[in-house]
């Protein structure tokens, strides 16, 4: 039982870690791009990578052709950080996003199963459901980010035949993909608020259970003492006292 409880605590801690990593990876998804001394922001996701220089259009990071399309990982000397033209693999972070998303999904299912097992045993399912909320929040955050950037990539022409296709990238920021990402973030925040309320209710329930056990223990001790004090003394009388009682 102690091992099972420790495992539940470990899964709960891992859920917090996954949520923190999800937020960190989501925030770490931008970089700096330079091309012909023009700087801009790099945006990349699970299936695409592009750079937005002016805020109005997206340029290709590959001078020989367009790599700004679905399914491409880019390693290009035009990508830089702080103005240094070094090669960076945008897919490294994308693979981390995909891996953490799958891990969070697996542990979410395991947390739900753990909650059902605890409930069947008559135990509190708090840690299981709490972990499930953590993992579900991470899934929403990662999934929203991946869907948003992949949705944006669909406005770019896959074969590069449309020279005006890249113009629409910056204009999709307030489109359906952004709306989905914003909705998922809101859902994740709501789940975290529910998590906080569950923690408060669980702590209050634990305090109440402790007080009830204390009152029950005191009541049992008082009842046992009362029974001992009022019990009948069945010890036989001495022989002299018995004879005196007979004469009387």
TrEMBL record:
The keyword Transmembrane applies. This is Claudin. The keyword Signal applies. Residues 1-33 form the signal peptide. Residues 226-248 are annotated as: Disordered. Keywords: Membrane, Signal, Transmembrane, Transmembrane helix. It comes from the Eukaryota. GO terms for cellular component: plasma membrane. The chain crosses the membrane at residues 96-115, 127-148, 168-194.
């Amino acid at each position: 039982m102690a091992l099972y409880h420790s495992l539940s605590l470990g899964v709960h801690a891992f859920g917090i870690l996954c949520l923190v990593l999800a937020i960190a990876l989501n925030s770490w998804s931008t970089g700096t791009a330079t091309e012909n001394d023009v700087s801009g922001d790099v945006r990349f996701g699970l299936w695409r990578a592009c750079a937005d220089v002016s805020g109005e259009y997206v340029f290709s990071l590959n001078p020989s052709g367009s790599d700004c399309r679905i399914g491409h990982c880019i390693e290009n000397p035009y990508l830089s950080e702080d103005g240094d033209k070094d090669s960076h693999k945008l897919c490294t972070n994308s693979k981390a996003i995909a891996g953490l998303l799958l891990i969070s999904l697996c542990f979410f299912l395991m947390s739900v199963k753990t909650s059902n097992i605890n409930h069947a045993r008559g135990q509190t399912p708090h840690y299981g459901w709490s972990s499930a909320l953590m993992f579900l929040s991470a899934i929403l955050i990662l999934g929203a980010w991946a869907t948003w950037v992949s949705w944006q990539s669909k406005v770019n022409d896959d074969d590069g035949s449309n020279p005006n296709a890249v113009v629409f990238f910056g204009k999709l920021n307030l489109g359906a993909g952004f709306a989905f990402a914003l909705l998922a973030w809101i859902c994740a925040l709501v789940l975290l608020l529910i998590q906080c309320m569950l923690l408060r209710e669980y702590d209050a329930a634990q305090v109440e259970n402790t007080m009830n056990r204390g009152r029950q223990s005191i009541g049992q001790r008082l009842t046992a003492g009362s029974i001992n004090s009022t019990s009948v003394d069945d010890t036989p009388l001495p022989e002299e006292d018995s004879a005196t009682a007979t004469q009387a």
